[in-house]
């Protein structure tokens, strides 16, 4: 399948998001014939490289001109200023030109730091996203948000730099550990809740197949989530307004993730955020009670709610929420559901209501 993402407000930037199976050879052809760089620098992580090195060498590197390879340690710790420094120098060692291409093959960590480097090397070169986790396929690879973490918090340094191509191969998901898989399902749930009533119904009627990792079901859910994200990013590429709805579940989710010292994976934290913020949506934004129960049922059935919020007093979570990038005049704002598939943004919520929802 091929989606087109067109950003008319940003110098007419447009790129394809291509999905398929076992088609890395097609990526090689697209790079060589369409993007035509003088050199391609693949950035991947150790886990992905160890699992796919034969494929990379046979289908990408061996049969192509001028491919270099950089492998970073796996995990969030690689999205750091230290690793960024090392990568900058490694890339410069390869004597890049303005026509050099970075090819990020991995999860959100590889995609975020590679995109950031592409945005600053020689004041900006092109890059391709090849996402290998569900989170990266439905979320981080699309929309051009790049970033690294600081000692203060996650993603505080970053840029908007759109990729030239997003290339998705569903076969990567076969090796994804169970926890990473369910971590991604939580982000799918969020996407469908904010933008696809039909997608949400489909998810709700396929819960057993999702748990059983049925290929045809998960592919359909990923493609529907991509459609939702691409549509939102097209309307508001730099998160000035509508794109904020992608943060549904994230105001509370980020607070819980941070309180856990990042032991709780992002998607599971967002699942708890979805529970709390759906409840706030019900109290404050006319979100239907029956739909609230449907969401609760799905989260329970998929075992996405690890109940970390019960470990931390509300005051601590509130303190974390007050650092949220979306706050307005020191007031905490939320994206809130109005109905399934429709979400509002910039909704100021009083601490008493957040507390009621957090503890309910
Ligand atoms: N830029 C954005 O818009 C955006 C959106 C959402 C999340 N993010 C960022 O994405 C990151 C999280 O992404 P993630 O969950 O993909 O994390 P990740 O990149 O750390 O990947 C998770 C783990 O899965 C492994 N892995 C990756 N692909 C695999 C495969 N096919 N088979 C087996 N193992 C594989 C990785 O090595 C890693 O250990 C966070 O840093 C988050 O801030 C960014």
Describe the structure.
The chain is an alpha/beta fold. The protein folds into 2 domains: 2-175, Rossmann fold (3-Layer(aba) Sandwich), CATH 3.40.50.1970; 179-359, Dehydroquinate synthase-like, alpha domain (Up-down Bundle). Helices cover 48% and strands 19% of the residues. It has 14 helices and 11 strands. It has helices at residues 24-35, 46-61, 81-93, 108-120, 134-140, 178-195, 197-204, 207-211, 215-235, 250-259, 266-284, 289-301, 314-321, 351-359; strands at residues 2-7, 13-20, 39-45, 67-72, 100-106, 126-131, 145-148, 157-160, 165-169, 333-339, 342-348. The strands form 3 sheets. A 7-stranded mixed beta sheet has the order 1-2-9-6-5-3-4, with helices on both faces. Helix 5 (134-140) packs parallel to helix 6. The mean pLDDT is 94. The chain binds nicotinamide-adenine-dinucleotide. Nicotinamide-adenine-dinucleotide binds at residues 45, 47-48, 51, 74-76, 79, 106-110, 112, 132-133, 135-136, 139-140, 143, 145, 154-155, 172, 175-176, 180, 183, 266.
């Amino acid at each position: 399948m091929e989606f087109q993402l067109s950003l008319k407000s940003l110098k007419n930037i447009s790129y394809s998001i291509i999905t398929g199976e076992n088609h890395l050879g097609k990526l090689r052809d697209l790079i060589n014939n369409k993007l035509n760089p003088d050199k391609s620098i693949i950035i991947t992580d150790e886990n992905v490289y160890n699992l796919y090195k034969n494929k990379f060498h046979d289908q990408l590197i061996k049969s192509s001109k001028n491919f270099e390879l950089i492998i970073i340690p796996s995990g969030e710790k690689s999205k750091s200023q230290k690793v960024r420094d090392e990568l900058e120098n490694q890339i410069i060692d390869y004597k890049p030109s303005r026509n050099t291409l970075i090819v990020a093959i991995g999860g959100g960590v590889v995609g975020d730091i590679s995109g950031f480097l592409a945005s600053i090397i020689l004041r900006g070169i092109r890059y391709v996203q090849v996402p290998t986790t569900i989170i990266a396929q439905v979320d981080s690879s699309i929309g051009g948000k790049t970033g690294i973490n600081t000692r203060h918090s996650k993603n505080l340094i970053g840029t908007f730099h759109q990729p030239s191509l997003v290339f998705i191969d569903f076969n990567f998901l076969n090796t994804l550990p169970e926890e990473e898989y369910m971590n991604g399902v939580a982000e799918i749930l969020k996407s469908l809740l904010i933008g696809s009533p039909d997608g949400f119904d489909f998810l709700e009627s396929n819960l057993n197949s999702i748990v059983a990792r049925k290929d045809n079901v998960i592919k359909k859910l990923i493609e529907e989530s991509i459609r939702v994200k691409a549509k939102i990013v097209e309307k508001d590429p730099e998160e000035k307004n509508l794109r904020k709805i992608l943060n549904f579940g994230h105001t509370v989710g980020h607070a819980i993730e941070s309180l856990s010292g990042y032991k709780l994976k992002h998607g599971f934290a967002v699942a708890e955020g979805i529970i709390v913020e759906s409840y706030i949506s019900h109290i404050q934004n006319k979100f239907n009670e029956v739909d609230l129960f449907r969401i609760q049922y799905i989260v329970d059935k998929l075992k996405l709610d690890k109940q970390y919020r019960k470990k931390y007093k509300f005051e601590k979570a509130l303190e974390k929420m007050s650092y949220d990038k979306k706050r307005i005049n020191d007031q905490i704002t939320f994206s809130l559901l109005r109905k399934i598939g429709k979400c509002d943004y910039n909704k100021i919520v009083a601490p008493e209501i957040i507390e009621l929802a957090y503890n309910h």
